[in-house]
Amino acid sequence: MADYDLAGIGNALVDVVARTEDSFLDDHSLPKGAMILVEADQSRALYDQLGTAVEISGGSCGNTIAGFAALGGQGAFIGKVRNDQFGDVFRHDLKALGVDFATPSTVDGPSTGISLILVSTDAQRTMCTYLGAANHLSPEDVDPNVVQNAKVTYLEGYLFDRPPAKRAFVRAAELAHGAGQKVSLTLSDKFCVDRHRPEFLGLVEHHIDILFANEAEITALYETDSFDKAMQAVRGHCEIACLTRSERGSLVLCGDEVHVIDAETVEHLVDSTGAGDLYAAGFLYGYTQGYDLAKCGRLGSICAAEVISHYGARPESDLKALVAPALA
After folding, report:
1. Do residues 187 and 212 lie in contact, with contact meaning Cβ atoms separated by under 8 Å?
2. pLDDT tens per residue, range 44-83
3. What dotted CATH number matches 4-10+59-110+133-327?
4. Which of 70, 155, 274, 306 has CA atoms 20 to 30 A from the CA of 312?
């Protein structure tokens, strides 16, 4: 019996969410809708020019684990923070949700990472991420007791930029599979896929059971403009592929099965930040609780719809209550 339903490995970041105009993005040569990595000085310069902002612990995987815990799942998180104010905030927030986070804080080196999330008037989000301490995750940080005792280990593609993190992913996958558990990956970002395509392909084909990707990411992975071609290509590379398509819903592929999941109705689209993160939270909650794949996809859609109806990437409504009718 696994001690955890889900163990997440990802960037431990504090999100700074601010509304912005497209002109701000143009002035700073920021590609709209992308996640770009910045250094500490650029992060500080951008931060100083922002208007009113909301600061909350985040990171893609952190958001997924938070949503998963809000649904009632038992989660653990592996990631690096510094022993500073933002690091304390991040650790406290996860622990308050009931998530185990035992990775030791660093006592020297870069500060805790932050992600500036610039939300345009059309709800598109552009992220400028200073990884800081999060960038120093290594294979030694992967706790075998956590990974081997989790039903699913979930890997965040954003973390894939440094060689030690790539080795940490492989180590985690080997530990999980050696214990008879499952491994999941989110591709996270098209530009991230473009930077590391051959390595992502190898990871998906040899180490991943459950893949999460949006339309831009999956077509980038297989270097095609055709979603259908990418969909056919991924079939043979992992057990389950969850492919999200914004307002067109999602597809869940498993062998010859194709489950078409409708998007949930959203009265007011406010901020698309965290949609993929919370879709993964809902799907993986359903999966670890033994629900069928169609229902898992429905849970993902419900959670994604909740998070895009307000600012920030953490749920504000009672997710248990929201998904209850779907589970009845």
Report:
1. yes
2. 999 999 988 888 888 899 999 999 999 999 999 999 999 9
3. 3.40.1190.20
4. 155
Report the greatest alpha carbon distance in the chain: 54
What would you report as the CA-atom Rg of the chain, rounded to the nearest whole angstrom? 18
Percent with pLDDT over 70 in the chain: 99
Tokens read off for 189: 């970002």
Reference 323, options 307, 301, 292; nearest CA is: 301
If you search the block for the tokens 């180590």, which residue do you land on?
171
Q: Which of 103, 125, 104 is nearest to 115 (CA)?
A: 125
With the C-alpha atoms ordered 232, 234, 236, 238, is the resulting torsion angle positive or negative? negative
List all residues 6 or more positions away from 321 whose beta carbon is below 8 Å from its beta carbon.
none
Q: 275-294: per-residue pLDDT in tens? A: 999 999 999 999 999 999 99
Is 63 exposed, middle or buried (CB count within 10 Å of its CB: 0-12, 13-18, 19+)?
buried
Q: Which residue, 260, 253, 201, is CA-closest to 232?
A: 253
Question: Checking phi first, is residue 98 left (phi over 0); if not, alpha (psi -120 to 50) or beta?
Answer: left
**CA neighbor of 66 nearest in space, from 264, 263, 274:** 274
The domains of the chain are located at 4-10+59-110+133-327
Alpha-carbon distance of 40 to 37, in angstroms, equals: 10
